[in-house]
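Annotated sample (chain length 545).
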Amino acid sequence: MERIFADLHSHPVAWSFNALRNTPQEKEPILFTPWNIPESNVKRQAKGKRVGYSQADFAKLLVGRTKLIFASLYPIEKGFFRDKFFRVLRAKKGIRTGKKHTLLDMAQTKFMGISKERVEFFQGKEIEGEIYDYWDELQKEYDFYLKGANKVNEVCVDTWENGQRVQYKTKGSYQIAKTPADVTESVNSPDQVAVVLTIEGMHALGIGNPDVAQDIPLHLLKERIAALKGESKTIPNWEHPVFFITFAHHFDNTLCGHAHSFPNIANKCFLDQSKNLEAGFNSKGLEIAKDMLGLDEQLKDTGSRRILLDVKHMSPQARADYYQHIVEPYNSSADVKKKLPIVASHVGYSGAQTLEQLIEESHLEKTKGLFGKYNRSDNFERDDFYAWGINLCDQDIEQIHKSEGLLGLAFDQRILGVRKKERRENNIDAFTRTIERIVLVPFKADLDNPAAIWDTISIGTDFEGYIDPLDPYPTAMEFKNFAEDLKGGLYQLKKRSPFLFGDLEVEEIIQKISFGNAYQFLIKHFEFGFGQRMNQVKQSGNIVS
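Output written by the structure step:
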């Protein structure tokens, strides 16, 4: 039976969208589509370099047999374009012109693979009558997905094999899912990808602007959440539901604290994460989290559709607050019909046992000076794991297990804690040791049904998220190789620790991690009727449609 794959966190249109947006091609419907895929640098792709090629466009997903993609929409945060030091050649009023750019502008153009004109747009320059706004950009990206949906396309995919350029031709389509039936239909179609929409960062709804005066008021934030659910009374509703939202991201969202995520050279020279870094939830954040989940102040279901919360990028304190104030009391309620599951979409393991330990040791992630002695904080390790609080600890894994949640293993070398000596070898060891420690947690903690931890592990690559991928698996086309390598790693693990596997065979576990767990989780939690509450209100005659 041919392997198929699911990816819990990826950005499949980011390569095309950011290359075509703010260009003349945007005005041409035949060109402004996810199927217009800019050429990749296949030599950089073969070496697994960070940028210069597409990691997970729809052509690569088809070649790699990815049948289910949780597509993360992401308006790039303005904090990436507000450098702290090294400001040079600034135009009047702080807006760069086409000939005047800071070192950060040039670095971001190269690193993100976007034009200088798009950098200027992010910084506030008006282009074609538009000023960069998170919510508007989110709508634009959603519309971009719609332009390519349900259209069969034949696309060529270039790669590098055995020292030479190789080209594959692939033909297929993608469908944006509204229901579990849509997903199953696409999965069973030989040449179609099921797309489930997600969002990365609450800033996408119009908050967390560097200039706080630009943030939208609370009532409008709630109305935009309703629009994502198909339930708004005042603004246009989306046609397709959003399954989950990565609540925090790299910068302050005004709702909860975010985890330290940038290497220290970036923090020291260019990017300022300091505002609300490592903070917990505030009262507004808890209110919005409940609204997103369809809960009232007493944690009772309101009948509104759930948009699940993804805890990746939440600070350890924010995760602790979320578990304490929402997840645990809701799931322990006597009248709960279905547990509130925790999603951690693209994560690694920190080696820590508790969130308190991560909170107390957060200072070990930071350096004291830009030009001081070499400090290993960027590679802060604990038991061969990347020890930063952005990664999960045992307490997180216990919560995921008890809530019957889902976690996705990131393909980012830094997040996985890939050792330098492993980077030119087969990196599967980083995955194997991460899985081993994750699976051990419920056994060590004597939780109920510890073997069910195998049902919580999936792939969450973060492809197109500006990651440094593992050398052997730089794109979605290498998923098959990844699965075969992981199979070998798990056979070795089973020899060492057979008790972790119970009655499960290695091949069965590979199927779960590659596809089955993400698919079954979706089928279980994607069932709430899209726009259902709004339709019920209309039928009751309480509002005029």
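Annotation: Confidence is low (pLDDT under 50) at residues 84-99, 369-374, 533-545.
Annotation: The longest strand covers residues 164-176.
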